[in-house]
Write a structure and sequence with these properties.
There is one protein chain. By secondary structure, the protein is an alpha/beta fold. The chain has two domains: 254 residues, 3-Layer(aba) Sandwich (Rossmann fold), CATH 3.40.50.720; 225 residues, FAD/NAD(P)-binding domain, CATH 3.50.50. The protein is 30% helix and 19% strand. It is built from 16 helices and 20 strands. The relative contact order is 0.18. The structure holds flavin-adenine dinucleotide. Flavin-adenine dinucleotide binds next to α1, β2, α2, β4 and α6.
């Protein structure tokens, strides 16, 4: 790159994938100019709106992102959604086609904003059935879910369907002492609702067994250590008899489950709250109460599951669940589905023809982040030249799995692919002319007055400061704004 013709990159999304790709790119190709588009007025994606509020240390990666943003070659374009209508009324939208005209490369790093559904009766109709994604967004102050207002006062039992770390986050939020949460940056409305919660018993339910579950030891340990919360024994027939022969990670996890199961210091009857890991159950239906006094009740009363058996063996990490025909009903007035997030194509993609692998829920790519056709020509490697200058990173590249550290690695791999292409003079977008990035896009798509609604990094810093000030007043690290209007009001 040269000062006259720097590499101009548009990054769509300001989560870890967007920032880590930018970091590496700017470090390795001197003079690279990055414009980062974010549909919300505030940055950091799931670091702000996903990671649980009682995990502040996980958010330390924001310091690195701040450092990236301090470069004069970086520009944050907040409150601007690319290729899809903004999901909040104060937001602006720019078409992808405009980015094509004003950048050399576009990096899709827009994460996974939907979730997978169970597809069982009652899921969409009954009050009390929530998606974990919405609940997480709600307690973290995501504007889109600020009105969720889950009713935690109907009963003492809650069911969480799914056994990944998000499911355990949900269980922990329901069980944790509100005075502990009070010190975090949890949304004020969530604190209020959780302080009135009647939930005392949480079932975290999975189709398969402990050897196949997606949760990790740290999250299980945290739940086991909550004060005044006890753990119900797991079905020990699902734990391998010879734990010593297991690899280290599953061995430690199984040992913890076995130990938690036999601990008698905090038996369920002695404590106010409790939780369990309920294995080998497939959800079949959510049902309302059917008492004669409320014949048309729309309030969830129970969830019916079918018991499964694991084949070829419960100890095989790849075992699959087979139905047994036997059912079990768990009464609860609140249930959360937590079976995974899902990426979607930007609506505009179909016109521009950016290939999306619907089955895997990712932008089709060569594994290193180069956008490419879904089909490979028979026997031959597809040339990545078919989509010059288009890349993806993060959850929209790999699917919604892994943690920030793995997202960082896959973002670095995307940056490496871009660097490789740049060095080998592979064609980029608009290679034959000088492009002006945001200045070009802005002059093409913004109407007069729109400019004021675009949030730059300075704007975010002011919102950040205002949130910290609000927090100080109530002895908390931060009190988040939960409406985009409130965020924009800070900027006058
Ligand atoms: P995201 O972080 O989702 O970022 C995508 C960004 O793109 C968002 O800001 C979004 O608003 C923006 N965007 C979307 N569409 C558009 C558009 N059209 N135009 C402009 N911008 C757009 N990892 C850990 O290491 N520790 C944890 O404790 C942890 N807890 C988690 C808890 C939950 C509930 C979840 C869901 C994940 C958790 N993770 C945790 C995983 C971690 O959050 C992810 O690995 C990581 O955030 C993925 O990064 P990303 O940049 O791909 O996506």
């Amino acid at each position: 790159t040269s000062p006259e013709h720097p590499l101009r990159v548009a990054v769509i999304g300001s989560g870890p994938a967007g920032f880590y790709t930018t970091y590496k790119l700017m470090a390795k190709i001197q003079g690279t100019k990055v414009d980062m588009y974010e549909s919300l007025p505030v940055p950091f994606g799931l670091v702000r709106f996903g990671v649980a509020p009682d995990h502040p240390e996980v958010k330390n990666c924001q310091e690195k992102f701040e450092e990236v943003a301090s470069s004069p070659d970086f520009r944050f374009i907040g409150n601007v959604s690319v290729g899809t209508k903004s999901d909040h009324p104060d937001g602006l939208t720019v078409p992808l086609a405009s980015l094509f005209r004003h950048y050399n490369a576009i990096i899709f790093a827009y994460g996974a904003a939907q979730d997978r559904k169970l597809g069982i009766p009652g899921e969409d109709q009954l009050k009390g059935v929530y998606s974990a994604r919405e609940f997480v967004g709600w307690y973290n102050g995501l504007p889109q879910h600020a009105n969720l207002n889950p009713d935690l006062t109907q009963g003492e039992e809650a069911v969480v369907i799914g056994q990944g770390n998000v499911a355990l986050d949900v269980a922990r939020m329901l069980l944790e002492d509100v005075d502990v949460l009070r010190k975090t940056d949890i949304a004020a409305h969530a604190l209020e609702t959780l302080s009135q919660s009647r939930v005392k018993r949480v079932h975290v339910v999975g189709r398969r067994g402990p050897m196949q579950a997606a949760f990790t030891i740290k999250e299980v340990r945290e739940l086991m250590k909550l004060s005044n919360v006890s753990f119900h024994p797991v079905d020990t027939s699902l734990l391998p008899p010879d734990l010593k022969s297991l690899p280290r990670a599953p061995r430690r996890l199984m040992e913890m489950l076995a130990k938690g199961t036999t601990a008698i210091s905090q038996s369920p009857s002695e404590t106010a709250k409790s939780w369990s890991l309920d294995f080998c159950l497939t959800p079949k239906a959510f049902s309302p109460s059917s008492s004669s006094s409320t014949p048309t009740s729309t309030q969830l009363a129970s969830t019916t599951f079918e018991r499964t058996t694991l084949s070829p063996s419960p100890f095989d990490p790849n075992a699959y669940a087979l139905p047994t025909g036997e059912t079990l009903t768990l009464p609860s007035s609140i249930a959360f589905r937590s079976i995974g997030y899902k990426s979607t194509p930007l609506p505009e993609f179909s016109d521009i023809n950016i290939p999306f692998d619907e089955r895997r829920g990712i932008i089709s790519n060569d594994g290193r982040g180069r956008v490419q056709h879904e089909e490979r020509t028979r026997g031959a490697e597809m040339s990545h030249g078919s989509f010059p200058g288009l890349y993806c990173a993060g959850w929209v590249k790999t699917g919604p799995t892994g943690v920030i550290a793995s997202t960082m690695e896959n973002a670095f791999a995307t940056a490496d692919a871009i660097i490789e292409d740049w060095v080998s003079r592979t064609p980029f977008l608009n290679a034959d002319r000088n492009v002006h990035g945001w200045e070009g896009v802005k002059s093409e798509v913004l109407k007069s007055g729109d400019d004021k609604r675009v949030v730059d990094w300075q704007g975010w810093r002011r919102i950040d400061e205002a949130e910290r000030d609000r927090g100080r007043e109530t002895g908390r690290s931060r009190e988040k704004f939960t409406r985009t209007g409130e965020m924009l009001n800070v900027l006058g």
